[in-house]
Structure formats: structure tokens, C-alpha cells
Amino acid sequence: MSESEVADAELMRSIAERNGDSDATRELYKRYGRAVYSWVRKITMDPGKSEDLTQEVFVRAWRKANTYDPTRGSVGAWLYGIARNCAHDLLRKKSDVVGLPDGPETIDGTVEPADIEAIWIGGQVASALEVLSPEQRTVLELAYFEHLTQKEIAERLDMPLGTVKSRTFKALKRMKDVLASRGIVPEAVERG
Amino acid sequence: MSDEHAQFLEELGAYLVGGLDPDEAGAVRRHLEECAECRDELNTLDGINELMEAAALTEPPPPGLQDRVMAAIEGEAVEARSKRGLAAIDGATASATSRELGPRRVNLSSLAMAAVFFFVLGVGLTLVLSPGSDRAPQATDATNGGVASASPSPTSLPPLKLLSSESALPTSATKTGGELTPVASGDAWECDMSVWGLERGQLYEVWIQGERGWISAGTFRVKSIEHHDFRISTGASVKTTSRIMVTVEADDGQPGPSERVILTTQRTH
Fold first, then answer.
1. Which of A171, B10, B34, B122 is deepest in the core (most CB within 10 A)?
2. By residue range, what is the domain housing residue B162?
């Protein structure tokens, strides 16, 4: 983690105390914009509504910044609650159905809640990539988002295969630290 | 740490992302059976691998969305600041702002001075449209002039055309425009405004040219680039002004209009 990176709770404090610190608000969007947008995109299945809902989530977060209590949970969880409330409101308007029953669901019910939760976390993970160096970020983006093999990445970047492998390893280790700093700790997978 | 071990350790990332060919992956698997340190490392990184796979399910927001979100928040901030600032000011005067969004650095003293100026002098100015406009002279209202003489029932003047500023909109001038209809209700003068072709996400400000310079009539944002209707409270000066314009503002606290004039209308007395 970059030493200059401000913790989430500190960001919220800046937003609340300075009555809407625009730099802090922009940073909050950088960290959670992708999670919020991807999540509401799955909920609404509509790009236009997704933009409107994303905007609403951040506006509400800005308004309620002074209600965030770090002792009660992470900023991500707090923002997730706001996003769910916004989605509730949208569903009420759409079909008079009150709320999202047990977990998030799409308006047409085609997305499983587990996928939705994965998207919420995944959005935060994708945003955390920004903290990596461009070299490390690139190899992970090519591997996970473009599904290139290590050899293909080496060809794309015109660098030795060994360098790509080494960089991938170091990038994953760095991601582990960055995510831990943002309260995202993966469960270790036991192998025999 | 042996060189061989170090090599396998660095290949764990590539192994996890499925980036090794079958022979390489087999060699890593065999090493893992013998090396507890590499197994521990793999277990840790596998959790990150799953998170990265979740990240791949997401999509980035549209490029302009961040600006749109920030503009909406800044609009709320402006509104909040204005509400606090206007709390001690007479409500009727303070209403010289957009209905849809809060006022932004409205020059209240200038607005009030302009209203009083026109009232005291009983301004006899009759609005005459620019050549080509379809506006008719408003003899009764204008010659009676002033805020106090406005009809108690809603009275509207013919609409004014707002034309795009060629310098500001070189690419979309033909699609950008607006219309402004002054409406008097009792002592208050407002304007129904329609604009089209304006970008979303920008903060716009309506300005009325008074005797002492430009007077802000409020700010607005458009919900649709195609068409946006709203009402602003302008005060009586809208009846006598020679010029009205719409600018794009940066919300930087500058008291005067920016140089980015988007729409403008010209009147002659």
C-alpha cells in the first residue's frame, strides 16, 4: 500500500468534516465507483438507470457522510447498504414490490445473489488495481480481464516470459497488501 | 532458498492464472508436493486469484460518470451553502434562483437595487424584440413598469429566443438553443425556460444584463441533452433588460459570468 493512501474511514471523515471535501469525495468514487456501478448494472440491467442509481448512491453517501461510524463496519459495507436502499427505492417505483427480499436481485430476477455479492467485492478489487504500479497493473489486467496467457502477455508487452511471470507473482502479492489495507482479506484455500 | 525453489515461487502467479503450458504447470505441481513454503504461498495467493476473477465480472463505469456524480454533489453542496446563506434574507428576494437547483452566488444586492431602480423611475422602457423575433411590444406592463405594478394574475410576455453562441459551441450550434418566457404572478417575475442541446453534467447560469452589469438569475443543470424545462425567478428586471445569456460555470466562486457563453438573446429598447 502506498503510504500516502488515505484509509477509507479517513476519507469519510474528510467528507463529513469539511462539508463535502471534493478531493475526498472524488477518491471515494475512485475506490467504489466501479463496485457501485457494476452492482447496480446487474440489478437494473439498464445502462441509463445504472448511471442514475450510481449518482444517487454517491449523492446519498455525501449527504450522510457524518453518519458513518467506523466502529460499526467498513466504508464498503456502509456504501453497500446505501446502494441497496437506492435499489429498494427503484424497485418500489417500478413494481410496488417493497424491497429486495433476502439479497439483491435484478428487476427481472436473472442474477443470483451470490454473483451480485461477488460483483460488489470485485468492483472494489478492480479499483484497487489503480494503486499498483502501471507495470504490475498491466500484467494483471491482461491476465484477468483479457484472459491472455503469460506467453501472450510477453508478446503483447514485448518482454521476456520470465519477467512477465515474476511481475505477475509480485503484482498478486502487492494486491494482497492493498486489499488488506482496504479491509478485503481473502479466505486461504486449503490444499492437500 | 535454492535457485530452483525461487524460480518455482515466482511461477506461482502464472500458475494460478492458468498462464503456464501443461509441462510447466506439471513441474510446478510436482514442486508443490514437496515444498510446504510454496504451498502456503499458493494458498494465500489463491484467495487473491479468486478476488481477481470476481473483478473480471465487473465493468468500469462510463468515462463521464465520475464528472456527472461530482457535478451532482457539487450542486447539492452549492444548494446547501446557499440555503445557509439565504436563511437570514427576505424570502421573496432570495427566491431569485432556479427552482430545480439551488442558487449559486446570486448577486442579491444587485438584484434588489435593480428592482428598486426600475420601480422608482417607473421605467418606461418597452421591450422591443430584435429584428426577426416574434415578440410583440408589451405596452401595458412595461410602461407601468416595476415590480409593484405587476398584474396580480399570472401574465406572460411572449417568449424570447435564446440562440447558441457560435464561439462557444462551434460543433453543435445548430442543435443548441432555448426559449425564455417571462411570467408575472403578483409582484414576482419568473421565467419559464426551455433549453435544448446542452450537455449534461455542466453547471449553467442565467444572467440578466442590468444597469450595473450582469445579474445572476440562478443556476441549473439539464437532465436531458434533448430538452429541459424549468422555471427561474428573475425579478422584474427581465422585463427591461437588453440582454440575457446562459453561461457554463465552474462553480469556482467567481462573482461574475464566465467567458463560456452558451446561449444569448439580444433586445433593443
1. A171
2. 65-268
